[in-house]
Amino acid sequence: MTTVLTLNPGSSSVKASVRTPRPALTVTVERIGTDRARISGPDGAGRFTGDLANALSQIAGLVRAAGQHIDVVAHRVVHGGPRHHRPALIDDPLVADLRAAIPLAPLHLPGSLSMIEQARRLWPAADQVACFDTGFHAGLPNRSTRLPVPAELARLGVRRYGFHGLSIASVLHQCPSLDQVVIAHLGSGCSVTAVAGGRPRHTTMSLTPTGGMMSGTRPGDLDPEVVLYLIAEHGYRVDQLRAAFDHESGLAGIAGGRHDVRDLLAAGDPAAELALDAFTGSAAMAIASCASTLDSWQALVFTGGVGEHAEPIRERICARLLAVRGGAAEHGSAVRQLAATGLRIEVLTADEESELDRQARHLLAR
Question: Does the predicted model carry a pTM greater than 0.90?
Answer without folding.
Answer: yes
